From TrEMBL:
Family: Belongs to the phosphohexose mutase family.
NCBIfam families xref list: PRK07564.1-1
Catalysed reaction equations from the record: alpha-D-glucose 1-phosphate = alpha-D-glucose 6-phosphate
Protein name, per record: phosphoglucomutase (alpha-D-glucose-1,6-bisphosphate-dependent)
Length: 559
C-alpha cells in the first residue's frame, strides 16, 4: 500500500473538553473533519508516533466503524507500527486503559461521547489516552488543539482495507514498512485484571447463595452501551448470575435511543424495577462507555457517588487488591462532596481535591500517592487503571457486601452514624443559551471579586448561611506543578456547606450549567437530601440569579 498526502484546511472548535472532543455525528462526518483531528493527535506525539503501538476502540456508537477505518489508514501512513483494536470496534473506556497498560503502548484512541446520546442525530467523540492509560493531560490536549488550528495536510493510506470483526493478527506493507493490526476480544484482558483484584469465588457464592445465606439478587443495566459485553462475561458467565439479572446488554449504535447516563433520571427503568420488586438486593447501571456507575440498594435505596466513594474507602480491607498492594491516599474532584475526606482523616491517609475530570488523578497515581478516587458524576475508580471504572465499582460493592454481610442501606446508615453525612445534590440545566450561561458566570465572577461578599449572609427557610470563602477553584498538580485555573465558582459557608457553579465541558450544543449543593450534618443523617438541601438550593438560585439569566424554572436533571 502507498500513502498519500491530502491537502486540508483547519476546522474551528476542535478543542477537547473535560473528556475528549464531542460533537454531533454530522460534524464528524464532514469531509476531512475526523481525518484532521486524528492527524493532530498523532502529530502531538511528535517523533514517538513512529514505530508506536496504539489501542483503538469505543462504546460502539454510530460512526465508530467509519472512524476506525480512518484511524487505520492515517496511522498506517504516519508510521505507527501497530494498532490493537477491540473486536467490532468495541472497548469500554476502562478496558482501553487496561490494554494500554498491559501492552505498554504509547496510548489509545477512545471512540466515545460517554454518557451523551448516540445515533446518527446525536453525538460522537474522540479522546486520546496516554501511556499510563489515562486521559491526555491539559498540556497535550492544548497541543492537539493548536495543531488543529494550523493543519494544512494529512497523510493517509486510502486503499488500506482492514476488517476488525473477528480476533486475529493482520500484516500489511505500507510504503515498504510493516504495519500490523491485531483485533482482540474486548473482554479477555479486562476480566483477567478484575480477577486479580477481586475474589471471584466469594462473589459467585454471594450471588448464588450458600447454605448459610440466600442468593444476593442483582439487576445490572448496561443501557445498551458497551458494558453489555463485559457484564455478560463477568456477571453471567464468570459469577454465574442468572440470565434475567442483566438487561440491555447488547450494545446498540444509538443506545436504543436512550440517554446512556446512569442517574435517577435517565436510568429510571432500572430504578423503577428495583423499587417495585423486593427480590432485588442491588441495582447498577453504567454509561455508554462503561466508566460511570450508579448503585442502588433494595427498594431503590440510592447511593450518592460521593458516599459510594467514602464507603469503599472505609472498606478497602474487603478487596484483595488493596490488601496486596497496600493503600495510599484518596482523592475526589472538587465538586464531589467531602464524605471521603472524613474517612481519609480517620485512616490517616493523604487526601487530594482536584478539578473535574479523571485526567487530574493520573499523576498522583503514577507517583504512588493515590489508591482510590471518585467524582460526584457517578465515577469511581482506583489505581488498577487510569480511568474510572463502572464494573470495578460494582464488584467493589459486592465485595464489601459479601464481607460485611449487610444490606446496602444498612452499610450506608452505619457509615453515616460513624462519620456524619454529607448531603449532596446536583442540579443540571442542560442546553441553556450559551450567552445567558456565560453572563450568569460573569455575574458570579463579579460577586466573588467583591470584598463585601465575604461575611455576607443569606437566609432561607429559617436557616442562615454566612459566606466564608468565595473564589474560582484553581489547582496546582503536586507532582508536575502544572496550574489549572477557572475550575468552578465556589461559595463556602461558615458551617461547611458549599455551593459550586460550573459550565459543563462535555456537551455538544448550548451550555449546561451545573450547580452543586453540599451540606454536612453530624447527627441528622437519615433525612431526605432534597428536603434538607432545599434552603441552600434556594440560596444558590438567589446568588446566581439563574432563573433570571436563563429563563429556566427547573433543572433538567437532579442527581
Ligand atoms: C462530566 C462530569 C465529570 C466527568 C466528565 C467525563 O464533565 O461532570 O465529572 O469526569 O463528565 O465523564 P462536565 O465537564 O460535563 O461536567 V464521562 O463518563 O462523560 O467520560
Ligand atoms: Co463515560
Amino acid at each position: 500500500f502507498k500513502s498519500v498526502v491530502v491537502p486540508t484546511i483547519p476546522f474551528e472548535g476542535q478543542k477537547p473538553g473535560t473528556s475528549g472532543l464531542r460533537k454531533k455525528v454530522a460534524v464528524f462526518m464532514q469531509r476531512h473533519y475526523t481525518e484532521n483531528f486524528i492527524q493532530c493527535i498523532l502529530d502531538a506525539q511528535k517523533e514517538k508516533k513512529k514505530g508506536s503501538t496504539l489501542i483503538v476502540g469505543g462504546d460502539g456508537r454510530y460512526f465508530t466503524t467509519q472512524s476506525i477505518n480512518i484511524i487505520i489508514r492515517i496511522a498506517a501512513a504516519n508510521e505507527v507500527s501497530k494498532l490493537i483494536i477491540g473486536r467490532r470496534g468495541l472497548l469500554s473506556t476502562p478496558a482501553v486503559s487496561c490494554l494500554i497498560r498491559t501492552h505498554k503502548c504509547l496510548g489509545g484512541i477512545v471512540l466515545t461521547a460517554s454518557h451523551n446520546p448516540g445515533g446518527i442525530r446525536n453525538d460522537f467523540g474522540i479522546k486520546y489516552n496516554i501511556d499510563n492509560g489515562g486521559p491526555a493531560p491539559d498540556q497535550m490536549t492544548d497541543d492537539i488543539f493548536d495543531l488543529t488550528e494550523k493543519i494544512h495536510e494529512y497523510k493517509i493510506t486510502p486503499d488500506l482495507d482492514c476488517d476488525f470483526q473477528q480476533p486475529g493478527v493482520q500484516h500489511f506493507e505500507v510504503d515498504g514498512r510493516d504495519f500490523t493490526v491485531e483485533v482482540v476480544d474486548p473482554v479477555d484482558d479486562y476480566v483477567q485484571l478484575m480477577k486479580s483484584i477481586f475474589d471471584f469465588k466469594k462473589l459467585s457464592t454471594l450471588i448464588n447463595g450458600s447454605e448459610t445465606r440466600p442468593p444476593f439478587n442483582v439487576l445490572i443495566d448496561s443501557m445498551n452501551g458497551v458494558t453489555g459485553v463485559y457484564v455478560r462475561r463477568i456477571f453471567l458467565e464468570e459469577l454465574g448470575s442468572n440470565q434475567d439479572s442483566a438487561v440491555r446488554i447488547i450494545p446498540l449504535d444509538n443506545f436504543g435511543e436512550l440517554h446512556p447516563d446512569p442517574n435517577l433520571t435517565y436510568a429510571k427503568d432500572l430504578v423503577d424495577r428495583v423499587r417495585n420488586d423486593p427480590k432485588f438486593d442491588l441495582g447498577a447501571a453504567f454509561d455508554g462507555d462503561g466508566d460511570r456507575n450508579m448503585i442502588i440498594g433494595k427498594h431503590a435505596f440510592f447511593v450518592t457517588p460521593s458516599d459510594s466513594l467514602a464507603v469503599i474507602a472505609n472498606n478497602l480491607n474487603c478487596i484483595p487488591y488493596f490488601q496486596n498492594h497496600g493503600t495510599h491516599g484518596f482523592a475526589r474532584s472538587m465538586p464531589t462532596a467531602a464524605a471521603v475526606d472524613r474517612v481519609a482523616k480517620k485512616l490517616n491517609k493523604e487526601m487530594f481535591e482536584v478539578p473535574t475530570g479523571w485526567k487530574y488523578f493520573g499523576n498522583l497515581m503514577d507517583a504512588g500517592r493515590l489508591s482510590l478516587c471518585g467524582e460526584e458524576s457517578f465515577g469511581t475508580g482506583s489505581d488498577h487503571i487510569r480511568e474510572k471504572d463502572g464494573i470495578w465499582a460494582v464488584l467493589a460493592w459486592l465485595s464489601i457486601i459479601e464481607h460485611k454481610n449487610m444490606s446496602i442501606e444498612d452499610i450506608l446508615k452505619e457509615h453515616w452514624k460513624q462519620y456524619g453525612r454529607n448531603y449532596f445534590t446536583r442540579y443540571d440545566y442542560e442546553e441553556c443559551d450559551s450567552e445567558a450561561a456565560n453572563k450568569m458566570m460573569a455575574h458570579l465572577e463579579t460577586l466573588i471579586n467583591d470584598p463585601n461578599t465575604i461575611e455576607s449572609f443569606y437566609i432561607n427557610a429559617g436557616k442562615t448561611y454566612v459566606v466564608k470563602v468565595a473564589d474560582n477553584f484553581s489547582y496546582e498538580d503536586p507532582i508536575d506543578h502544572s496550574q489549572t485555573k477557572n475550575q468552578g465558582i465556589r461559595f463556602l459557608f461558615e458551617d461547611g456547606s458549599r455551593l459550586i457553579y460550573r459550565l459543563s465541558g462535555t456537551g455538544s450544543s448550548g451550555a449546561t450549567i451545573r450547580v452543586y449543593i453540599d451540606s454536612y450534618e453530624r447527627s441528622d443523617t437519615t433525612a431526605d437530601a432534597q428536603i434538607i438541601l432545599k434552603p441552600l438550593v434556594n440560596i444558590a438560585l438567589q446568588i446566581s440569579q439563574l432563573k433570571e439569566f436563563t429563563g429556566r424554572e427547573e433543572p433538567t436533571v437532579i442527581t
